[in-house]
Amino acid sequence: MPIQRSIVHLIDKQPDGQPAVLHARDSELAASQAMEDLLARLNDTYNAKPKVWGFFNNDSVTYPFSTWLGRYLDDGDFVAFSRQAADHLKTLMEGNNLSVGGHVLFAHYRQDESDYLAIALLHHSEGVGVTESLDVASTRQLDLAQLHLAARIDLSDWRSDAPSKQYISFTKGKGGKRIADYFRDFIGCEEGLDAPGETRTLLKAFSDYVESEDFAEEQAREKTDNLIDYANTQARAGQPITLDELSGLVDDERPKAFYDYIRNKDYGLAAEIPPDKRTLHQFRRLTGRAGGLSISFESHLLGSQVEYDETQDRLIIHQVPTSLRDQIKRRGE
C-alpha cells in the first residue's frame, strides 16, 4: 500500500460553543513504517464500518471539496489542498454543536492499481504503559476503535472516462444523522447506491437462480458458501462485489450463467455492488434431514416465507416453490 502523500492537521473544537481553531501542519509527513502501519490499521477498521456510497455533487460552489481535490491532482500541491479542506471542515464543525475536533488525516495512497484518498477524523485515548526504564507511565495513543468520521475516495474511478456512482464511501457516524450529514456535506457526496438494498437484491437474485436451476441440496449449499465467502472477502478488503467475477465462482462450469440470469431478469443491479456485511450475515442456509424428509432454506426467509410455530413444532411454508408444487399436483392425479 504505497503512500504517495500524507499529512495531519489539528482542529481544536470543544463542546462549549467557542470558535474552533485550526492548527495546520506546513509540510507533508515523511515516509515511515509508523505511517504505513497507521494507514493499514485505519483501512482495516474502516472496512468493517457501515458505510454510505456515492459520488461528488455537481454543485461545486456549495460543495467545493471536489474542486480543490481536482486542483491538487493537476498541480500536485497536497499541503495547500489539505489545509483548504481542513479549514472548510472546521467551518462546518462550528455549525454543528454535536461535533468535536480532532486530528484530521489526509492520505493519498495506491492499492491494487488504483489511487485512493483517505480522510479520517482521529481521536486519542488514555492508557498505561511501561517505559524503557521499566517505569509505569500514562500514555496517549490514537483510538482507531472510535473511528466515526472517515471517507475514502477512489481517485482512479473518479478521474476515469466513465466513473461509477460509488467512488466515494464514508462512515455513517455513531453520533446520528446530523453528524453524518455535516461530514457528507464536507466531502460534497451525493448518495449513489444503497449498499444494504443492493446486497439484498443480489441475494434475492441468487435465491431465484438456485431455485430456477433446481440444484441438489449439496450443490445449493456449496454455491451459497462460495457467494458469502467471496462477498465477505470483498467487504473485508473494502472492495465491491463484481457480478462477472461472482458468476464464475457460483458456477465454474458455466461462469457466465448467473451473470446472464441477472441481466435477463433485469434486477437492476450495477456491475459492481458495495457489500453490506450485516445483510450478508443474515444470509445462511438452514438445513434439516430426518425420516425421508429434507428441508433447506436461506435463514433470511425465516419469519416471512417460512414461519416456525414453536408451540406445535411445525414449519409453515408460504409461496411453495413451483417445481415442488407441480410434483405434488402430479402425485395427486
Automatic annotation (TrEMBL):
InterPro entries named among the record's database cross-references: Nucleoid_associated_NdpA (IPR007358)
Read off the lineage from the record: Bacteria, Pseudomonadati, Pseudomonadota, Gammaproteobacteria, Oceanospirillales
One GO CC annotation: bacterial nucleoid
Supply the name of the protein: Nucleoid-associated protein
Q: Name the Pfam families for this protein.
A: NA37
* Protein's UniProt keywords contain Signal: no
UniProt record similarity statement: Belongs to the YejK family.
Q: Which UniProt keywords apply?
A: Cytoplasm
Location within or outside the cell: Cytoplasm, Nucleoid
- Tell me the organism: Modicisalibacter muralis
Q: Which NCBIfam families match?
A: PRK00378.1
| Example of a GO MF term | single-stranded RNA binding
Chief location of this protein within or outside the cell:
cytoplasm
